[in-house]
Automatic annotation (TrEMBL):
Entry-linked InterPro entries: Dimethylallyltransferase, IPT, P-loop_NTPase
Annotated segments matching region Interaction with substrate tRNA: 34-37
Source organism, top-level taxon: Bacteria
A molecular-function term among this protein's GO annotations: tRNA dimethylallyltransferase activity
Annotated keywords: ATP-binding, Magnesium, Nucleotide-binding, Transferase, tRNA processing
Protein name stated in the entry: tRNA dimethylallyltransferase
HAMAP family on file: IPP_trans
Site feature location: Interaction with substrate tRNA: 100, 124
Catalyzed reactions: adenosine(37) in tRNA + dimethylallyl diphosphate = N(6)-dimethylallyladenosine(37) in tRNA + diphosphate
Gene: miaA
Protein source organism: Levilactobacillus brevis
């Protein structure tokens, strides 16, 4: 399997800088895994890598979509798969950087996408509850008893994949190992970045202030001239809060505070998702910038492992 590094975590913890450093040291290329950075002209509110940052390492899946176009998880997977293959064939390391968890799940797990996707939210939640109450090993043993082939490919600690396999088995009545996946499987290494909650929230608040100073309002005005709130891109944090109050200066301060609150809530959801749905290796580069050496060492060790 092709090895792929994924740099994940909430906003304002250094994902962009780390991805660039890894790309430079490990001869890598960066694929954005963010659902909003695909949109052209929306640079500030989406926290895209700047032109100077993008010049430091090859970047992909940034500025590929107009703001009036939807960008679905299926489109992301369809775009990312050939990119990963091409990067691998060039002898480079694919590095996916971004915080849209479901996009990465669909890419790495080959989830069936569309109306025919086998799944049942109630079954899924029940299985997750078993993992929480009885431990992931109990859930994995269920899978091993029902589908040993699938279990042999899923680590006992990977709750996300174990739940997915059992869910598909229960919904379809067929072995998960017999399912046709939507795409290739990868050997992924998740690097999770985080920091202490008060510090994270402080950095998020500061980032929003920096965005406003950098011209976020002008970016939102540009979007408003193109039908504004009706556009797919308008659902992003930073845009949805400001679009309704552009002509109401007295409400701008409250809208900016709302952006900060929504960003903090989103960061909390991101962390919860990645902790429960991935086997990420977590690091704090904010309080311990020197740990980047350990990250590089860990990635190098993983790269030498056989699939």
């Amino acid at each position: 399997m092709i090895k792929v590094v994924a740099v994940v975590g909430p906003t304002a913890v250094g994902k962009t800088a780390l991805a660039i450093k890894l790309a430079q040291v490990l001869n890598g290329e960066i694929i954005s895994g963010d659902s909003m950075q695909v949109y052209r002209h929306l640079d500030i509110g989406t926290a895209k890598a700047t032109a100077a940052e993008q010049a430091q390492a090859p970047h992909h899946l940034i500025d590929i979509q107009d703001v009036d176009q939807q960008f679905t998880v299926a489109q992301f997977v369809a775009a990312a798969q050939p990119l990963i293959q091409a990067i691998h064939e060039r002898g480079h390391l694919p590095i996916v950087a971004g915080g849209t968890g479901f996009y990465l799940q669909a890419l790495f797990d080959g989830l069936k996408l569309g109306a025919d996707a086998p799944g049942d939210p109630q079954i899924r939640e029940h299985l997750r509850q078993i993992a929480v109450e009885q431990g992931p090993q109990v859930l994995w043993q269920q899978l091993a008893a029902q589908d040993p082939v699938a279990a042999s490919k899923i680590p006992p600690t990977n709750i996300r994949r174990t739940v997915r396999a059992l869910e598909v088995i229960q919904v379809t009545g067929q072995l998960f190992s017999h399912q046709q996946n939507a795409g290739p499987q990868y050997d992924e290494y998740y690097i999770g970045l985080n920091t202490a909650r008060p510090l994270l929230y402080e950095r998020i608040n500061q980032r929003v202030d920096n965005m406003v100073q950098a011209g976020l309002l002008d970016e939102v005005r540009w979007l408003a001239k193109r039908s504004g709130a009706t556009l797919p891109a308008a659902s992003g944090i930073g845009y949805r809060e400001l679009l309704p109050v552009l002509d109401q200066p007295e409400k701008l301060a409250a809208a900016i505070d709302q952006i900060k609150q929504d960003s903090r809530h989103y960061a909390k959801r991101q962390l919860t998702w990645f902790r429960h749905q991935t086997t990420a290796n977590w690091y704090d580069l904010v309080q311990h910038p020197e740990v980047d050496a350990q990250i590089l060492q860990d990635v190098l060790a993983w790269l030498t492992e056989k699939n």
